[in-house]
User: Fold these one by one.
Assistant:
Number 1:
Amino acid sequence: MSGEPLALYVHWPFCVSKCPYCDFNSHVRDLIDQDAWRQALLADLAHEASLLPGRTLTSIFFGGGTPSLMEPSTVEAVITAATDHWTPDDRIEVTLEANPNSVEAARFADLAKAGVNRVSLGLQSFDDRALAFLGRAHSAREGFSALEAAQRNFRRVSFDFIYALPGDTEDSWSAMLAQALSLGTSHLSLYQLTIEPGTRFASMVARREFEPLDADAAAELFELTDAMTSAAGMPAYEISNHARKGQESRHNLTYWRYGDYAGIGPGAHGRRLGRRTVRHRKPENFLTAIRRNAHGILEDALLAPVEAADEALVMGLRLREGVDAQAIADRFGLPAVVDWNRVERLVLSGYLTREGTRIGLTAKGRLLLDHILGDIAAVEEPRVLAVG
Ligand code: SF4
């Protein structure tokens, strides 16, 4: 596998508070021993490197949690170790997720010096009432100044917005999106609010404290988003991600194109050498595992070809470029991953496009991704090869 591309995901599991919609692996702790965490991440990284010699590192992504709360020296230590273990690609992309409060923005210059070259800011809204509803610790004003600081320090800046909140209308969302598009970033992640099980929002909805926006209104906002971002030269290259040409997230493209990535830190997932890896989620359990085993792995399992092919199809269909369904089948030794008759039906009814064996979702199809996947998936057991 020498020279094969590899992406690295690093999970920092701490936040200052827990947002009510969040189902990520994030924890609030009074004290964080930065030295212990630096050593733990470096040990976990060394374990992955020992299994993946000779690879070319194309991207590093610090996600969380709130990785902008990491000491810049910890970020630098991880980047240095990763680029020592593997050969960095000439255009290596190093992204860090940041929250827009002033303490974190003050670290941007140090993070840039540490080797971060792209920042993804969790702005979420420019409306203080929406930010309060989302339980965010920053105001709209702090959001604007963090964005300005990010643009001063990093060549590539993206930010996240959450829309389709209760009460959102086409007028309110188009005004906010127009403002977002006018700020000169080259990448935007625009997510609809979804109520995830186990979150505070899920309990509030169950207690009827608020009602989520209904599905039809949310679909209209999705279509509006598609039209406005396309007109502004930042079309969706993935269901929720928009970029100017060439400014797509290289790291996330690795996931969606089903390339190999190592995942380190609490709860991080990885896919490498045909295996799925999952780390211990709870920070304390992760540190105990590191002390015992010198890695934080909870699960390291071989993926059955059917499972891997299904994942590759699910990920690939999220992309505007679509996915070559037969190439996936060939890669995993399967006769087919889709039922071509059903694909044809969905092409005729305007939900899918097809060119040869490459299929993709139309604008109408993007609203029904899960449904379409369930309809076309035809992953079969691998062919039994003759032996002898
Ligand atoms: S800042 Fe992000 S990771 Fe942390 S609780 Fe809020 S949504 Fe979750």
Number 2:
Amino acid sequence: MEPLEERVLDGNAIGGLLAEVFGTEMTTATGACGSCGAAGQVAELAVYRPGLGTVVRCRHCGNVLMVIVQIRGVACVDLQGLARLT
Ligand SMILES: [Zn+2]
């Protein structure tokens, strides 16, 4: 049996994936939560890998900041939860 609680990773776990998507190193970029406004380095965000993709959440309010899904080897990134990413 898999534990029900998902293991929480951090942004470093997806550094390679983000570099592939954005073409640059993203773990040192600063993301701001679109819900609570908390800003922090991508490396410090909470990352979950429930199986079908990667979900990045705000550590402060749990808002989903990014969803990354790989479809036929192409990574699709949804950044709608982010107020900004700089
Ligand atoms: Zn937040």
